[in-house]
Design brief:
The complex is a heterodimer of chains A (about 300) and B (about 290). Chain A has about 300 residues and is mainly alpha-helical. Chain A contains 15 helices and no strands. Chain A folds into two domains: about 35 residues; about 240 residues, MetI-like (MetI-like fold, Orthogonal Bundle). Chain A is globular, with a radius of gyration of 24 Å. Chain B has a single domain, classed as MetI-like (MetI-like fold). In chain B, about 75% of the residues lie in helices and about 0% in strands. Chain B contains 14 helices and no strands. The N terminus of chain B is likely disordered. The chains are: A mainly alpha (about 300), B mainly alpha (about 290).
């Protein structure tokens, strides 16, 4: 059925082609403009990262990514992401459950507030924690008396990363769970399932791709965050240096090949993120199509 | 008093309560747990720290606050930040529309890869983008050398700042326009054409108005992102006070000089502006939903 409909559609647009499309030269010009723009702003930056990284040979490259300071930066970056992503997954699931499945007043306002960390400058994200936990901050004296270090230490880096990546999972889940409605969960509850059983068997499986999608974006941002982390970290080598900060230090020391070598690791992470993202989009689209086809076959 | 109390607690009263409950009743469990957890987490991570920022800036008296905010160096940084962000968002508006159009309407080799690549600025860490763009646009770089032939310096000038902000805002217009363009009914264009409109008239009078809300939303998103950007700009701008110093960098400088209140004052200005932009974007999205939905 669905196949017949789609072939019908394509025949119709095919017939109307001449009146509602552009001359060949217009097409060629538009495609060329678009490709030139994307080449200048997307493709060349990506290429230059790898050419500069290997400009002084493979030996310099591997030395740059395996030296102790780089290894420590990799470790710290992984730790920050390993804490930030699960925290924001739990928050995202809780917020999406309350917002998508219940009707309460002020909901639209809450959804707007969730986006706030996207709108705020990363420098401000670092600044606010500095004002709370820094030596001259609100809790600074108390923290100093109790010998607890948050700023210029790992907890500060984790906090800034959590703030920056705060909306990612919630934003992916809320629209999907709103669209899915609540009939399935209501059925599960009415049939006697416990709340947790319903969550694990009904809710989680139906949002798993969107959840994964949000986690991948959240992870990419967590590992790459620069502005917020650079305010709170203090940039102490082998102590509070994440990968993006390590790149900045190398670059400012004119160790360009080394800086680009470390940058190439993060560029690879970005490429892997894009591939996974496309795969998930493709998978979600296919499942959606199958669901539509199953619904129309009934 | 006791009468009011008994009226409130008298649940057996047949008269319906005048006040609607905060949350509608549902058979589903976990509202209290999930909203409580989400609200607690959001307050601790986002709202209390942001309130702290505003409080800190209020430690200054009004004249002091005004002196920090209207200092010539700060004003120069606003001009650069807003000007370059506006320029970058405008570039993205024009080229984003062309890219979205080409990706939706035409078929060409490598289209799917290019479509995926549009999201690169979301995935690539800003520091990496910053050093890569700087290397490209210096007077000896692959792209910058051609501008240098025409005596134009890109890196370490406001042009370089615009280049970096264009990069980080690139996906917004494309990604907001693309789905709207794909959902447009072919019939509308066919009707315009059969009524004798030229292709140019159809595009400017029929298609462009239909795309306007999503174009503006994408523009506002790119602009908002550019205003706050730090990582990619610090490498390419050269960071000269009064010339190529953006506001986030000025905040950073104040922090390094332990001028916390001054940093907080500038931060509050940026925060208020971001919040207004966020509300505006929500209104725009609402408008664009209504347009496409109805």
């Amino acid at each position: 059925m669905a196949g017949a409909v789609s072939s019908l559609n394509s025949r119709k647009t095919g017939a109307a082609h001449a009146a509602t499309s552009e001359a060949t030269w217009v097409r060629v010009v538009l495609i060329s403009i678009a490709l030139t723009f994307l080449a200048l702003f997307l493709f060349l930056p990506l290429v230059i990262v790898f050419t500069e990284a290997f400009a002084k040979g493979a030996q310099v490259y591997f030395a740059a990514i395996t030296e102790p300071a780089a290894a420590h930066a990799i470790k710290l970056t992984l730790i920050a992401a390993a804490i930030a992503v699960p925290c924001n997954v739990i928050f995202g699931l809780a917020a999406a459950w309350a917002i998508a499945k219940f009707d309460f007043r002020g909901k639209q306002f809450v959804i707007t507030l969730i986006d706030l960390p996207f709108a705020v400058s990363p420098v401000i994200a670092g600044l606010i924690y500095m004002l709370l936990f820094g030596r001259q901050g609100f809790f600074g004296p108390w923290l100093g008396d109790h010998d607890i270090q948050i700023m210029f230490a790992v907890p500060g880096i984790v906090l800034a990363t959590v703030f920056i990546t705060f909306p990612f999972v919630a934003r992916e889940l809320i629209p999907l769970m709103q669209e899915q409605g609540k009939e399935q969960e209501e059925a599960a509850i009415t049939l006697g399932a416990s709340g947790w059983k319903m969550f694990w068997r009904v809710t989680l499986p139906s949002v798993k791709w969107a959840l994964l999608y949000g986690m991948i974006l959240c992870n990419a941002r967590a590992m790459g965050e620069f502005g917020a982390v650079s305010v709170v970290s203090g940039k102490i080598r082998e102590q509070t240096n994440t990968l993006p900060l390590h790149i900045e230090i190398l670059y400012n020391e004119y160790q360009f090949a080394a800086a680009f070598a470390v940058a190439s690791l993060l560029a690879l992470l970005a490429l892997v993120t894009l591939v996974l993202k496309s795969l998930l989009e493709w998978k979600a689209a296919r499942e959606h199509e199958l669901a539509v086809r199953a619904a129309s076959a009934q | 008093m006791s009468e009011i109390a008994s009226a409130v607690f008298d649940t057996s009263s047949p008269v319906p309560k005048p006040k609607k409950p905060w949350v509608k009743k549902s058979v589903l469990p976990g509202f209290g747990l999930s909203i409580g957890l989400a609200a607690l987490y959001a307050s601790l991570i986002v709202f209390i720290p942001l309130a702290g920022l505003v409080l800190k800036s209020l430690e200054l008296s009004w004249p002091e606050l005004w002196a920090v905010v209207s200092n010539p160096r700060a004003v120069a940084s606003y001009q650069l930040t807003f000007g370059a962000s506006l320029a970058a968002a405008s570039i993205n508006l024009v080229f984003g529309l062309i890219v979205a159009w080409v990706l939706v309407r035409y078929d060409f080799f490598g289209k799917r890869v290019i479509d995926a690549l549009v999201d690169l600025p979301f995935a690539l860490p800003t520091a990496v983008a910053g050093i890569a763009l700087t290397a490209l646009y210096t007077t000896k770089g692959w792209v910058g050398q051609w501008f240098w032939l025409a005596d134009i310096k890109v890196a370490y000038t406001w042009l370089g700042v615009t280049v970096a902000l264009t990069f980080i805002g690139l996906p917004f217009v494309v990604r907001t326009v693309q789905p709207v363009l794909a959902d447009l009914e072919a019939e509308v264009e066919e009707a315009a054409a059969s009524l004798g409109a030229s292709r140019w008239q159809t595009c400017s009078r029929v298609l462009l108005p239909a795309l306007l809300p999503s174009l503006l939303t994408g523009f506002a998103l790119a602009f908002a992102r550019a205003i706050g950007e730090y990582g990619s700009v610090v490498f390419i701008s050269g960071n000269m006070p009064y010339k190529t110093e953006i506001t986030p960098l000025l905040i950073m400088t104040k922090l390094e000089q332990f001028d916390y209140a001054g940093a907080a004052a500038l931060g509050t200005v940026m925060l208020i502006f971001s919040f207004v932009l966020l509300l505006l974007i929500n209104l725009l999205q609402h408008w664009s939903h209504k347009r496409t939905g109805g």
